[in-house]
Amino acid sequence: MKIVIPVDEKDMATNVCVSFGRAPYFLVYDTETQESLFLDNSAAASTGGAGIKAAQTIVDNKADALLTPRCGENAADVLKAADIKIFKTTDAPVKGNIKAFIAGKLPLLDEIHAGFHRHGGN
Amino acid sequence: MKIAVLSGKGGTGKTLVSVNLAAVAKTSTYIDCDVEEPNGYLFFKPDDIQEEEISVKIPRVDDKLCNGCRKCVGLCKFNALAFIKEKLFVFEEVCHSCGGCVLLCPEKALTEKEKKIGKVQKGISGNVKVKTGILNTGEASGVPIIKRLINESKDNNDLTFIDCPPGSACIVMESIKDADYCILVAEPTLFGVHNLKMVYELVKLFNKPFGVVLNKCLEGENPAEKFCLENNITILRRILFEHELGMLNSNAEIAVRESKKYSAIFSSLLETVKREV
């Protein structure tokens, strides 16, 4: 199963990034082969709609699940349309969250926030 | 003559200054461009209200024509388009109506449809024509409403006061575009100076003549005044932080219509501004 996690740094010791749409990198991890790959998040510097663009990246990488502390409405709509499940991470570093996910201990993310739109003004 | 009233943050007194200047003038037009939270009409309580809905154009996809080339997805700076499972999605609230995707689509799969984003209300309050822009909650940008308000006043020579949105973003630029003069309203705090500096830089960038009204003045040091003196900025008026004015304002009353004292203060400010222009 291919999972994606927003991360702060490009190494396996990193923490999960508090933001999804504006995370600097995404870790793509294959739970079967244990292969990992870090992607730059091109949406991080977007003027707007970062969540939509970031979710598009997740869809294009053919992920099965996203592990994130939170997720906005628009991004959740994109992921839902692509049948990608969203799981809620804990405060543990990335490795701990992957372990918890494999053990089936991460819950589905059920609070989708309405977004932090328009903070830059239009 | 068009006079825009602006400040770097909300609550400094833009509406107090623009409403009272409009009311103290013999005849005038007041335009509330703070479309996300217009409040000038609460003071004017205008009669003979006329309403006009404002729409923008947003893209509509014909799934049969779309071949999934994603050129539109790549173009959109606001990421209002996504392509998922062979289907194009449009996020209507995120779209800024630039029309670029429609022009770019090689398959002509995108056309435009109208979407209502808010309205313009016009009414009369004694000597003042009151125009209010109202943006529906959740919409991306109030710019199209402000454009309508400003453009229809373009060729009119009435003494016009433009009550701007707070800050210095696109909606403020749109509001001051045609102004002959800008009044910057500032509070006597360090935070007030920070916000004054934002609009000061904006009006300089737009080459607009401007002056500052120091609102809520107290005894003791006024950092906003210090900033004006250091930068040779014209101080048009100091308005004192007074209980009486606060009460009138919080009861949604127009101070110049209720009190001779404030009528004199704002008349004098209006004369100063007219001299500056």
Commentary on this structure:
The complex is a heterodimer of chains A (122) and B (277). Chain A has 3 helices and 5 strands. With 122 residues, chain A is of the alpha/beta class. In chain A, helix 1 runs parallel beside helix 2 (73-81). Residues 118-122 of chain A have low confidence and may be disordered. Chain B has 2 domains: 2-54 and 117-276, P-loop containing nucleotide triphosphate hydrolases (Rossmann fold); 57-116, Alpha-Beta Plaits, CATH 3.30.70. Chain B has helices at residues 14-24, 40-44, 71-75, 100-104, 143-151, 170-176, 190-205, 223-230, 243-250, 255-258, 260-276, and strands at residues 2-6, 28-32, 47-61, 81-84, 87-90, 110-125, 128-135, 160-163, 181-186, 210-217, 235-240. In chain B, strand 10 (210-217), helix 8 and strand 11 form a beta-alpha-beta unit. Classes of the chains: A alpha/beta (122), B alpha/beta (277). The interface between A and B is medium-sized, with 22 and 25 residues.
